[in-house]
Design a protein that fits this description.
binds zinc ion; Pdz3 Domain; 10 helices; alpha+beta; Aminopeptidase
């Protein structure tokens, strides 16, 4: 791990709170239902649904009166050399002539898995059906677009750039394309990424990247309290979504998510399951957060928080336990199973959602990297001894792959 740069004697950014009243939940409801509709068919890159989604988002930016980014809203790029994909990017110029050259990027990916199928990333690869991607990530897209609308009425001193990314599910395609814009990165003081914000449960919101700038923790926790959210913070700048592309450029990032669910990457990720009231709370929190950072005379001071590249990003495993780990790494001393999929090996062995995995075959597990490393060395012929901690008690499970 690289050394963490510490800069002393800088004052924390002081939180501002403005109460919103309005149409947020209703608007986000409309956006999610459209983006996750049969017509858009899972928004797979280079399909009609993908293009319709991009046009819908650019239409909203235009209607709300945002300015096109570098002369246009729709920014084409390609993945795997030739597959045409789209980003949609808009701006709200800062009100302060001495600060408006600095910008905050607010992003969310709008693509999803289309009809799924083998190799698509679907957790039911044997089923060919529309993967609606309501939570992943019509929810984050709707929230980002709604923030854009709200900020048209409340100018900020720094510039705000709103980005809907294509091809995230194909390896962060859209965010890598935008982060390759050097002029943009040079003016960016913070990148916020919303990915899967539609399943708020027990007011618990996960935020990754809290170690990527100075005093982020106190700012976030203070705002979380005011909005009735209990935040699980994790410092790492690297993570399984688009903020990673900006952290890799040495920029402060925040990754905001309500985390994994049983419907993740299945055709059941549908708009009916979205908690729009929860999204409204997250939008209010995010509005105050962005407004605070965008108006503060003190810009976020970058700190390194973990490696810029994950070793496990594209590892193919011969053995899987059938759990969804806590990808934001909010719990230390082990890896929390955020979800245990019924009928899969871990579930059959008695693992429960919330269990903290602390060892596999006698090797200690303290984070997702160690977990992936140990898992990649396992073969499906042998049973696996998994040590978990549940309610403070150590339990040993025997998992048959
Ligand atoms: Zn996804």
């Amino acid at each position: 791990m690289m050394p963490i740069r510490i800069i002393r004697r800088l004052l924390p950014i002081t939180a501002m709170v403005l109460s919103l009243s309005g149409l947020q939940a209703q608007n986000m409801h409309e956006h999610v239902y459209y983006l996750a509709s049969d017509e858009l068919a899972g928004r797979f890159p280079a399909t009609r649904g993908d293009t319709l989604a991009a046009r819908y988002i650019s239409g909203l930016f235009e209607r709300y009166g945002l300015q096109p980014f570098e002369g246009r809203f729709i920014h084409p790029f390609t993945i795997r050399d030739s597959v045409p994909c789209l980003n949609v990017v808009a701006m709200l110029n800062g009100s302060d002539p001495s600060m408006r050259h600095e910008a905050i990027v607010v992003g969310a990916h709008f693509d999803h898995l289309g009809y799924g199928g083998p190799g698509s990333g679907s957790r039911r690869p044997d089923t060919t059906a529309i993967h609606y991607g309501a939570d992943d990530n019509a929810s984050g897209t709707a929230l980002m677009v709604e923030l854009a609308r709200l900020f048209t009425a409340v100018p900020t001193r720094r510039t705000l750039i709103f980005a809907a990314f294509g091809a995230e599910e194909q390896g962060l395609g859209g965010s890598k394309a935008l982060a390759s814009n050097t002029a943009l990165c040079e003016r960016t003081v913070l990148m916020l990424n919303f990915d899967m914000v539609g399943h708020l449960r027990n007011h618990a919101l996960s935020i990754g990247g809290s170690g990527t700038f100075l005093h982020a923790d106190s700012l976030l926790l203070g705002l979380g309290r005011r909005h009735g959210l209990s935040l699980a913070l994790s410092p790492q700048g690297y993570g399984p979504s688009d903020h990673t592309s900006f952290y890799a450029k040495g920029l402060p990032v925040l990754f905001i998510t309500t985390g994994g669910t049983l419907v993740y990457h299945t055709p059941d990720d549908r708009p009916e399951l979205i908690n729009f009231g929860g999204m409204d709370t997250i939008a209010r929190f995010a509005f105050d957060l962005i407004r605070t950072v965008a108006n503060s005379t003190q810009r976020p001071v970058f700190q390194e928080a973990g490696p810029a590249e994950g070793s496990h990003a594209r590892t193919r495993l011969k053995v899987t336990l059938g759990i969804m780990p806590d990808v934001t790494g909010t719990q230390s001393g082990g890896l929390r199973a955020d979800m245990v999929v019924p009928g899969k090996p871990a579930h059959r062995a008695g693992m429960k959602t919330g269990d903290l995995i602390v060892s596999i075959n006698g090797q200690n597990i303290s984070n997702i990297d160690e977990y992936m490393q140990v898992l990649s060395g396992l073969s499906p012929e042998h049973e696996i001894r998994v040590g978990v901690v549940r309610n403070g008690q150590r339990i040993d499970l025997t998992v048959i792959p």
